[in-house]
Every structure is written in structure tokens, then in C-alpha cells.
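Input (structure):
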């Protein structure tokens, strides 16, 4: 039993899995924050463009 505990304590196979899980969770969290910032900025930009184009009249030239 003592030998099993010593071997279990030295075994690092599970540590790599935990590292990858933590790293992946951090990347997903950063992507969510970045997406939220881009979404807000894009929405504000779209509102500004809509306001600028609301009163504009577009005419096409007559080449006849």
C-alpha cells in the first residue's frame, strides 16, 4: 500500500490534463470578453452610420 501511494504521488499524467483544462477555460473566457467588446463597438458604429444616412437622399445620374 505504501508503494502504491508513493507511485501515485510521483505520477504526473493527470497534471497535464488539468493544465490543459485551465488553459482552455482561460482562452474561452478571454474570447467571450473580446466578443462582448467587439459586439458593443460594432453596434455603436452601426447606430452612428444609421444616424448619418437617415437624412441622405441618393440620386442616380440619367445618361440618356
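Output (sequence):
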Amino acid at each position: 500500500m505504501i508503494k502504491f501511494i508513493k507511485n501515485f504521488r510521483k505520477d504526473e499524467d493527470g497534471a497535464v490534463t488539468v493544465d490543459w483544462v485551465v488553459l482552455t477555460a482561460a482562452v474561452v473566457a478571454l474570447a467571450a470578453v473580446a466578443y462582448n467588446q467587439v459586439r458593443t463597438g460594432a453596434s455603436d458604429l452601426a447606430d452612428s452610420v444609421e444616424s448619418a444616412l437617415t437624412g441622405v437622399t441618393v440620386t442616380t445620374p440619367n445618361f440618356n
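Notes: Residues 13-53 form the longest helix (41 residues). The mean pLDDT is 88.
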